[in-house]
Each structure stands twice: as structure tokens, then as C-alpha cells.
Amino acid sequence: MVREPHSSEPGADPLLEDGWAKLAGIVGSLLACFFAIAIMSRIGVPRPLLSGVLAAIPMTIVIYAAIRAISMNTDSYITAGRAVPPALNAMAGAAEWISVGLFVALAALFHADGGDGPALAIGMAGGFALAAVLIAPPLRQARAGSMAGFIGERFASAPFRLCVVVAVVVCSFALLVTQLAIIGEVGSWFFPVGRVNAISVTIIVMLFVTLAGGMRAITLANALLFILLAGAYLIPATWLSTTIAGIPLPQLAYGTGALQPILALERELADSGFIGSMQIAQPGFAAAATDGFNTIALALSVAAGTAVAPFMVARFICTGTAADSRRSLALAPILIAVVVSSAPAMAAFVKFEVYRDVVGLPVGELAPSAPWLFKWAAFGDGAHATICGASAFDLETLITACGGADHVVIPSDVSLSPLLMTLGAADIADLPFAVGGFVTIGAIAAAAATGCVVLLVIANTLALDGWVATSGRSATVVGRMFVARLLAVALAIAAGWIAIARPADLPEMAVTTFALAAAGLFPAMVAGIWWRGLTAAGGSIGILVGLGLGVYYVIGANLGLDLMANSGDEIGWAIPGLTDRLAPQSIAIVAAPAGAVAMIAISLAQRAFTGRVAQDETKAD
Questions:
Q1: Which of these, 69, 70, 71, 75, lies nearest to 8 by C-alpha position?
Q2: The pTM is what?
Q3: How many whole angstroms separate alpha carbon 134 and alpha carbon 322?
Q4: Per the CB 3.0–4.6 Å rule, which of 41, 451, 508, 527 could disulfide with 179?
């Protein structure tokens, strides 16, 4: 059985300990880059050149961290030497949670008519609370290097350990594919490199930081990337808040600066005989979770999934002590809230700009008033911006769809995509090029932050825990490091190949990974830490039941049982009195309890049987 290396009492890592000075330097450098790009844009520097400069910013941060944190030490590679300061660890964890699938959909999720943004926020906060109380400190106190390692050592069971490995790989690999896929989507839009090239470059950079320094390098890189992605979301929100409402705090200007004018305009249109409101196309899981039960189930799934998400658990066992782990888990949601709290304002301000540029105007006047409509319709499949149900490829298409150039556009004629709500905010509000560019590299930073740690977690889990669980043999330090790095390369290439296929709904896929983690890992990990009555067989069966049920429903609900999209045989369970169709991202509300019941039943039955056998043997003696 392999135990993680036990160093002496954790001490300060000089590279991570003086991280505040590096963060200050990064903030200053990013501000300097922002103003420099803004000035170059104003004086006429070609945009392709400026796009290249912007693309280099997150990549430079990651490469810098990898070079500074190169390490061949196993403990540093797996757990950053268990010497990460709580604040720096919290920043890295915040960057990793705001995965790119959620980053680009936050504004749409917090659209005034939706309830799934709050469900995600509540689930995130609850997940960190659960992790702080139930998961991370006990694992850190036990000096476990992974969830599977903890289970394997406590229960001395290779099958139980292998079941945890399977659950970790299933939910983590899907998330890795999501990060790469949306980088291809974003990269092909803003940078003239194409999806394949964008994904390929990202894989190379991710492998560089992962192979060079492992968790030590990823921790430094992601703490720095948090500054970038937070700025990328807050800068346009603050800019819009200042220009529209005169208040540089979007959270405060949300109501009076955007919602009240929008409601006033909608009332005015209603008085004129027009009805309906503008549509912001929700991600797939939000469209499915239209009832109260699914919204509550989504929050619970995200909470349980966050608590046991493999990449989050790996992050919060990197601290010096269990108390430091709790401090990190307390600070991380505050940092996330700084970004997330601006999302409702971003959605409202963008909607207000659309009302000013589009609503109330004849279709024939849209070309000069809203050029961004036609720009974004030309990207992808044209679904990012539609008027009267038609993609805004050109003015003639819209005139035909709306029945004439004199048709006055009303709110219900307009539909925008989640991607446009975030990445297109600068275009819609006619903000400087530098602002839109920073939003784009913020999305790239979110993907890089999550992708690196997820890739490391999968590779380490397979190289360490999978090896031991399947072969029963301990691995040498050199062997483990070599296999982990080799697997990282293979996994990155495989995920990139799948990502090129462009999954249909990337935010939906990202949230689904939390539901699968909750279904497969939450009951077993909580019981494995806190219930002495759990048996290895019970835990194994619980994971297989919960994860199997979750995977079955997600595949069946999204692809169909014959694994063919749009085949017409997709499944959807109704829960009488609660919902007509359980959303795939809410499946943990059923799968996790099913796994827990199976786990408890098998454990109790096994212990009862063992007790009877022991009694019979005693009587026989």
C-alpha cells in the first residue's frame, strides 16, 4: 500500500510564502497592459496584433509560474508540499471553481427572469461549508494525498479504492473536456487561430505547467490567474455601471441603473399594445430547471458536488494544517462572491444597452444602431443573436423574418446567447477594445486554471491509486512521477481530441460534473470519514449505484439510450407532485440517496452476517 510522503511539520515554501509580492506585481503589470493596449487601440495599432498581445498574457502567467515552481519532489508535485498559505490557496481555489463553462454563462444565469444563478451561488456556498466541516480538514489531518488514497489506507481495500478512482476519473475527465472545448470556442472567436490551434496551444501550456511543477506550480499560476479573471469580469461591469448609472459599484447600481429603466420601457411598450420580454437563451440545464423542485435540486447537487469535487479536495489539502484548510474554505467563497455578485448587474446593463440599440426601432435601422448583432451572428451557428426568430446574418434576412423594414422591434423579438451576454458585453455597450479583450482572456484564464488542476488530479489518481488498486504493488517515487507525467500527456491529448467535437452545451456539461461527483462520491466520502459502521463492500456498492445511476440518466437525457444525439429516445423522469422532468444536472438528488441507501444496507447486512458467524464460531468452541 502506498502512502503519501510524510515530510516533517509543514513549513513555509519560499516561493509561495512571498506570493503577495508577486500578486502585487501581477496586478500592476495587468493594469499597465490594460492601459497600454487601450492606448495602442486608440492610435490605430492593428487589432490582430493587439489580440496576440492579449492572448499572451494568461499564457505568460502560467509559463512564469511553471518556471519558478519547477520541482522533482513528489510531495511538492502532488500536494504543493502542504505549505500553501491559506489566502493564496483560497485564491487558487476560487479561480478553479469559476470554471470557464460557468464564467461565460454567469450573466445569462443571473438574468432577471431566471433562478438558476442564485441556485448555483447557494450551492457553491453550501458546498464550501460542507467541505470545511466534513471533508477537507479530516483529509488534511490524515495527511491524505487524495480521496482514493485516504479510502485505500483506512479500509485497506483495493476494490473500494478502485471505485473511488473510477468516480474521480469519470467526473473530472468530463470537466477537462469542457475547459478545452470552450477555449476552442472562445479562441476561434477572438483570435484568428481556429478552434484546433487554440485547443492545441492550450494543451501545450497546460502540460508545461503540470509536468514542470505539479500542484506547486499550479497553485501559484491559479492564484495569479484569479486576479486576471476577476478583473476580466469586474472591469466591464464597473465600466457599464459608471457610464449608465454613475456609480462605480455594479452591485449597488443594479436596480436603479438598469432594472428600473428596463421595466419602465416595457410598461411603455405594453401600453402601446406590445407584449413580451427580451429572451436571453439559458444554458441547457437552466432551460430544463424551470420549476422550483429542479432549482432546489440543482442547488443541493452543486453543494454536494463542490464538497467532494476532486479538484477542490486536492486544492484544500495543500495547506499547512487542518485549520489553514478551514481558513481557505472560508475565504474562497468570499473571493468567488466578488465576481459572481457582479453577474446580475452585468446581465441587466447589457439588457439595457440592447433596449437602447434595438428595441423600439424599425428593423431597417438596426445596421447602424446595433452593428454587433451582425458581427456575432456571423460567429458559430448564428444562434448568438436572433431577431424575429432569424439569425442576424444580414439586414435582408431580418427584414424578411420580421415582415418588413418598418416592423418595430419589441423585446420578445430579441434573443441573445449566454456567450454573447458575457464575451459580447463590450461590443454591445461599445466599450474600448481593451475591455472586450480582457473579458476574453478572463475566460481563457478560467479554463487554464481549472484545466491544469483537473488534469493533474486525474493523472495522479490513476498513477498512484489506480496502480496500487489494480496491481496491489507499491510504486517507487521515480515510477510514480514518470507514470503520472506520462498519463497527463495522454489524458490531455485524449481530452483535446474529444473537445474538438464541440460538445453541445458547455455550461451544462460543467455543471453536470458536480452532479456526478455528488452522486458517486459524496455519500461514500462522508461515511468513510465519519461512520465507523461503513464497510469496504458497502462503500464500493454505494459508489457504483450512485455513479451508475447518475451516468445512466445524464447519457440518456442528453444523448439518448443509443448514444445518438436528437434520436428521439431521450429519457426524462417525472417525480409526481414535484416536477414533470428531472433535469440531468439535478440527478444527484436521486442518485446520491440511492447510493447512500445501498451503502448503508450492504454495510449493515455485512456486519450483521459477520457478527452471526462470530457468534456461531464461539458457540461451536
A1: 75
A2: 0.84
A3: 12
A4: 451
